[in-house]
UniProtKB/TrEMBL annotation:
CDD domains: LuxR_C_like (cd06170). The keyword ATP-binding applies. Gene3D superfamilies: P-loop containing nucleotide triphosphate hydrolases, Winged helix-like DNA-binding domain superfamily/Winged helix DNA-binding domain. This is LuxR C-terminal-related transcriptional regulator. It comes from Microbacterium invictum. Keywords: ATP-binding, Nucleotide-binding. Residues 837-901 form the HTH luxR-type domain. InterPro entries: AAA_16, P-loop_NTPase, Sig_transdc_resp-reg_C-effctor, Tscrpt_reg_LuxR_C, WH-like_DNA-bd_sf.
Length: 901
């Protein structure tokens, strides 16, 4: 009643499910508002045409990782063998059926999406999840992932829950229906239809107002009071039984039941999953008669058939809340014993924890065992919650502190940084040993980075160095981990770090870099780069790049944060890009999407630094698509450099960049400042570019300053600062000789040409153009632009046009619009023809383009789906759109269209 708009949205969803245009809805509202009734009414019309999988969240399973997912997917077991092997393995490990490396939740999510898509191919399939606020954290994350990825499948998902922060976070980005109260007309009709006697419409309208149109409150009023009583209550302005008073109504009704029926209801309320066998077993232990449920069913509190189900969650709350603490503990103890007997150790741990009053070493150990089992299945959030509860029940203070640190580590590994900080032991660390204190510092430092909190971000490197010192020789692997994270923190914050210096990172790394494994090699290279002169460091950097290139498997993904340091230090952007792409591919395979996101973001920075804004933008869009899949809407920090390349006014970019710098993101703010300067070069604002670049090259930071030197030479020469240009040229030459990089040599020759007499400039320009690899098309185009301008000045207009035409084509291809405009102006001045807006507009969206590229390289639909974390149906949908937009009809034509990309 009164839900026409909401019902239509549900009907539209169900219609889409039948027609390969599935989707999801998240229905939220207060208790009694009608969420379940709305869904049931919509399903009533479609039960014959859909396969409906329906579950209800129950508190007893909230600590069982992926427990709700197992219940929801159980009926689809016949289709499991039809999904890709890696996804099938992830689902089986998550369900506790197989042993293996704990799967990442996104990989479990992709597996469940594939399972639903396969089921949908057999028959349109709808999943309905009610009371989602009682689901385990991992199932919630998977359902959110699936809800955001359903597209071209015969699959739908409807999730209903009360207002709950964890549910809203997990389902962020999912289309939402917020159910409010009924309007006056519908609410009055509901109340008058159920009440005994005739109720005046104006009185009914008053009750709709005071109940805020809550359907349950109105229905219970009609059940509890007659029309005459409601009228008298309204006239006397007596309190109306709504909200918390509803539970009082239920409590009063329950008091009329026999004692053994009330006891049985408490068992059912505490058990919460609705398992009749568990309720019966616990009731028997407590001496409750077998027929005790009859009276409770008689007053419509509960139904007992295949499952025990309370008519409304508020009834269950009233039953549980009315009991004494001692009675509740007694019931939970009986339920724990039954769960142990049946081998349900997770459920037993939940009830055992609820059965104790105060610390209990045995129950704490039981919770730790459950936490370890959850972690083995990939349920790190469940592990965090279980360990936190174990810490609360641990009599030994040192053990409690240790378990709190472990809980925080689990939360951090799941991406819940704020929860991690909350779970860390408070107060004095004297209960922790040095290794545990080191682990605590690592959690604090990494949480500060994840949360983008300026103070935590800037202090991160110092905390990580302190952690490495505490770990020392006792925990060498932890020491190395802390030092690598400290290096990462240094590159993120640069000069904004407080409490430590990058030189200290280098010294600690050198001391801890014994051995021949890839981590040791990378650490020795980083320390040499930090502490030694470049000529001394170059061989160590080269060995590090070679070691990284030889690394396979997940080990490379764990080192992805550090590949740019040795690669770009050697002016080898190709190696950096190749290693980052490999790391991203491995991350996709294992479902480590947060690591993939970081790789894509870094790849965008690599492409920007070699003048390919289009590729950088594509990587950022892929990154944004992954964050949408994970339900994360925003970047940690805005990429001001990309804004500068996209033509955002400099004054706006500078304001954003200043805010990023003040927040502690020194590395990103350096990128932004450099991008502004480079685009100032494109517009001829040489003096401004020179002033902006001066602090970047005079105060360099690791590898991040390398590509600024050629820009600095150009700005210095054109602004009349030849001495500064000569100084920078000598630096570039030294780097080129020590690194052996063709790119460094080409950039040196381009810079040399700007400082050369006319007789030598041409040779340097042409040699530089021929030396750039194809991946540095933008750098080559900038060299052609400078060469073309030089040719025009020496009155070789025909030769100038040839260079400028090619530069214009290349700038348009890489999306360097500001440089393209400059090349267009120069070409016109040289007598050429270059109409405004000559760039070809790409008709494909970023996701369509990614699908097309993978298909052009020979990937199957299933392989593309796995790489992009979508279903094969969605891949097929995108390919049909690609073929239509490009006016082609085969994958062979697609391969020709994207040859060389």
């Amino acid at each position: 009643m009164g839900r026409a708009e909401e019902s239509e949205r549900l009907r539209t969803l169900l219609s889409g499910v039948r027609n390969e245009a599935g989707g999801a809805l998240f229905i939220t509202g207060e208790p009694g508002i009608g969420k379940t009734s709305l869904v049931d009414a919509a399903l009533h019309e479609h039960t014959q045409s859909l396969r409906v999988l329906s579950i209800q969240g129950v508190e007893v399973e909230a600590g069982i990782a992926f427990g709700a997912l197992q219940r929801l997917g159980g009926p689809l077991v016949a289709f499991v063998d039809d999904i890709p092997e890696t996804q099938r393995a992830a689902l089986r490990i998550a369900a506790g059926l197989d042993e293996g490396p704990p799967p990442q939740p996104p990989l479990v999510g992709l597996g469940f999406l594939s399972l639903l898509a396969r089921a949908g191919a057999d028959r349109p399939t709808l999943c309905v999840v009610d009371d989602a606020h009682h689901l385990d954290a991992e199932s919630l994350l998977v359902l959110g992932f699936v809800a955001r990825r359903i597209s071209a499948e015969r699959v739908g998902l409807v999730v209903a829950a009360r207002a709950d922060e964890s549910v809203e976070g997990a389902l962020a980005g999912v289309p939402r229906i917020e159910l409010g109260g009924l309007d006056t007309e519908a609410g009055s009709a509901l109340l008058r239809r159920g009440v005994e006697g005739e109720l005046d419409p104006t009185v009914a309208a008053d009750y709709v107002h005071v109940t805020a149109g809550n359907p349950l409150a109105l229905r219970e009023l009609a059940t509890e009071l007659s029309a005459a009583q409601l009228t008298a209550t309204a006239i006397a302005h007596s309190p109306v039984p709504i909200g918390g008073r509803l539970e009082m109504i239920y409590t009063e009704r329950m008091s009329e039941l026999p004692a053994h029926s009330r006891d049985w209801l408490l068992v059912a309320a505490a058990e919460s999953s609705g398992d009749p066998a568990a309720v019966e077993a616990a009731a028997a232990v407590l001496g409750i008669p077998a027929d005790a449920s009859d009276a409770a069913e008689g007053i419509d509190f509960v139904s007992v058939r295949d499952t025990v189900r309370f008519r409304h969650p508020l009834i269950r709350s009233a039953v549980y809340g009315a009991a004494t603490d001692a009675a509740r503990r007694r019931v939970h103890r009986a339920l724990a014993e039954d769960a142990r007997d049946r081998g349900q150790l997770d459920v037993a741990a939940h009830h055992a924890a609820a059965a104790v009053h105060g610390p209990d070493a045995e129950v704490a150990a039981e919770l730790v065992a459950a936490a370890d089992a959850a972690g083995a299945r990939g349920g790190m959030l469940s592990r965090a919650h279980l360990l936190a509860r174990a810490a609360e029940l641990s009599p030994d203070a040192a053990e409690a502190s240790e378990r709190s640190v472990a809980a925080a580590e689990a939360a951090l590994s799941a991406g819940a940084a704020r929860l991690a900080l909350h779970l860390l032991p408070k107060g004095d660390d004297h209960e922790l040993d040095d290794v545990a204190r080191a682990r605590k510092l690592i959690v604090e430092a990494m949480s500060g980075m994840f949360l983008s909190e300026p103070e935590g971000l800037r202090a991160g490197m110092a905390k990580l160095l302190a952690a490495a010192d505490l770990a020392g020789e006792t925990a060498p692997q932890l020491r190395r981990q802390a030092l690598l994270l400290a290096l990462n923190s240094a590159t993120v914050t640069e000069g904004r770090a407080v409490g430590a210096t990058v030189r200290e990172v280098g010294e600690r790394m050198r001391a801890a870099s014994g051995g021949d494994d890839v981590t040791a090699v990378v650490m020795r290279a980083a320390s040499a780069f930090i502490l030694d002169d470049y000529v001394t460091a170059a061989p160590a950097l080269r060995r590090a790049v070679e070691s990284l290139q030889e690394e396979t498997g997940a080990g490379l993904t764990s080192l992805a944060f550090f590949v740019t340091v040795p690669c770009v230090a050697l002016w080898d952007w190709d190696a950096a890009a190749e290693l980052l792409r490999r790391s991203a591919d491995i991350g996709r395979t294992i479902g480590a999407l947060r690591e993939v996101d970081a790789c894509l973001w870094t790849l965008s920075a690599v492409e920007l630094s070699r003048v390919n804004p289009q590729a950088a933008s594509d990587y950022l869009e892929q990154s944004a698509e992954l964050r949408r899949a994970l339900g994360v809407g925003d970047e940690q920090a805005v990429n001001a450099a990309m804004l500068a390349w996209q033509g955002t006014p400099s004054v706006v970019v500078e304001q954003i960049n200043h805010a990023i710098h003040e927040a502690g993101w020194g590395g990103i703010s350096r990128m932004g400042a450099a991008a502004i300067a480079i685009n100032e070069l494109a517009t001829g604002a040489y003096e401004s570019a020179f002033e902006r670049l001066t602090p970047l090259v005079r105060h360099p930071f690791l590898q991040s300053s390398h590509h600024h030197y050629p820009e600095y030479v150009e700005a210095a020469v054109r602004s009349g600062n030849r001495a500064a240009a000569q100084w920078a040229l000598e630096r570039i030459e030294a780097y080129a000789e020590a690194s052996g990089s063709a790119v460094a040599r080409a950039l040196f020759l381009r810079s040399l040409a700007l400082l050369s007499d006319d007789a030598d400039a041409e040779h340097s320009f042409t040699e530089a153009i021929g030396m750039f690899p194809p991946s540095h098309r933008g750098d080559a185009a900038r060299t052609r632009l400078l060469y073309g301008e030089w040719l025009r000045r020496v009155r070789r207009r025909s030769d100038a046009r040839a260079q400028l035409e090619q530069a214009l084509r290349d700038f348009e291809a890489v999306g360097a619009t500001t440089f393209a405009e400059r090349a267009r102006r120069e070409l016109l001045a040289a007598g050429g023809s270059a109409p405004t807006g000559s760039a070809r507009v790409d008709p494909l969206s970023s996701q369509e383009r990614q699908v097309a590229l993978l298909a052009a390289r020979g990937a199957t639909n299933a392989e593309i789906a796995a790489a992009m974390f979508i279903s094969p149906n969605t891949v097929d949908y995108h390919l049909r759109k690609v073929f239509r937009k490009l006016e082609i009809s085969s994958r062979r034509q697609l391969a020709d269209r994207f040859a060389g990309e």
